[in-house]
Amino acid sequence: MRAIACGLLFVFFVNGFTHAQLPADSRAKVETLATETLRTSGVPSASVGIVSEGEVSFTQAFGLAHVSPDVKASAAMAYPIGSISKQFTSAALLLLQQEGKLSLDDKVGKYFPELTRSNDITIRNLLTMTSGYEDNAPQDYIIPSWLKPVDPLTLVRQWAEKPLDFEPGTDWQYSNTNYVVAGLIVEKVTGQPLMKFLRERIFTPLKLEGIVNTYTEREKLEVTGYVSYAMAPVREQALEGTGWCQGDGDLAMPVATLLKWDLSIMNQTLLKPESYKELETPFVLKDGRDSGYGLGINVRMVNGHRMISHSGEVGGFVSDNVMYPEDHFAVAVLTNEVAASAAAKIANGVTGAMIPAVSPAKKESGNRGDSPRRFEAVPETGVLKGFGAKLATILDELEKRKIDRKLFTFDCNAYFSADALKDFSGTLTPYGPVTNAILTGSAQRGGMTFAAYAVSFEHGPPVRVTLYLQPDGAIEQLLVTGKL
């Protein structure tokens, strides 16, 4: 290793590419942020990486890769990145388009004519989440069927032969189904397994090291995934079965490798410039609205700075990846607890420290006794009408380790195992009765209504509760995801 002084930065070479160390004060801020976030959230570990001045300047892991027996996390360990994998599938299709083997404006029916409205839906609709195909995996917990292996084509036929959720190109709705179809198109055009094509045409040319398939190579993972029921101490969480995430969330890699991928996007080193333009251009809906979503990435302006981002979540893991290309900055955070916000909190904190102009407004902490009126309420309509009162009753019953299972779907009843009921009761009982449940946001996804509530208690801090409700009102998800 050779160090060369360069102003306040020091440059050195590791694994064939340049790193520029963060100044000591910035490094200390990142270390404090990561350590404190893990302490307050209970998330076992975070692997954090930063690109500054166009070079990798920081990679460090914090916490435990495995709890009891304790195994320290290392930045060299591969973490599942979940839906950040989608942009790799998009890049594969852009490569094939460059070679004239397909067009993103090809109809899906050219490859899978049996799918619903396949002659009205393009590959571009798949990649921009504007096809109307229903999401096969909106839940933020592992439902029983996901633990069994599935053939991706069987999965697609189950979900993409349903009626559409909306007319193609008229709306935006996140759907993992789109990318399973997209991955199968890559396989049909190339005659190769998707992972083989990615390795030969993307990973190897870019020298992206340490990438494994989360599911077919799960034995290579050194990090264990976890779940926390209502902020209780974590329990081990099994990964999904093979096939569920092909093309949409099946990659795992060390944080430095993800940063190297970010640099390839910022420096445009794999694709042609026109392909990167397609990758990074948000889809415009038929009524002129900007979807804010390109080809597997979120794209928006933040106080005059262009941000490209995506998060990811699979069984036991959450990741966050943020780039500001014109600022030559990126941050990636990989964590090992499902349905946790630690990755986003660390990524946002690092971004705000490194680029103050895009720092989000600070929110008041949810201390005991805070007025619930500080949460911005939205009206409860449709299936959510009057649900706040019902949610308060459900949570009060969970404090007593009781549950009215008639209110829940099969999947959600499976989630509320004996362990989950014990943990919900252990966490919530000291908080006392619910005093208020305020709807703070809702959306449609996977044929269901997603809702987020801010719930206040007589004695404890307010918490965030996320739900999915089926059209008949049955509860498909009810998670307490953290303090507000």
What do these coordinates show?
This protein is an alpha+beta fold and 484 residues long. The chain folds into two domains: 82-358, 3-Layer(aba) Sandwich (Beta-lactamase), CATH 3.40.710.10; 372-483, Nuclear Transport Factor 2, Chain: A (Roll). It has twelve helices and 19 strands. The chain has helices at 24-41, 86-98, 123-127, 152-159, 176-190, 194-203, 255-267, 273-280, 342-354, 387-399, 410-415, 418-428, and strands at 4-6, 9-14, 17-20, 45-52, 55-66, 71-72, 79-80, 212-213, 226-227, 235-236, 251-253, 298-302, 305-314, 317-324, 329-335, 434-445, 448-457, 463-469, 475-483. The strands form five sheets. The protein has a seven-stranded antiparallel beta sheet, sandwiched between helices. Strand 4 and strand 5 (55-66) form a beta hairpin. Helix 4 packs across helix 5 and helix 10 (387-399) packs across helix 12. The protein is globular and about 60 Å long. It starts with a strand and ends with a strand. Mean pLDDT is 93; it is low at 1-18 and 361-373.
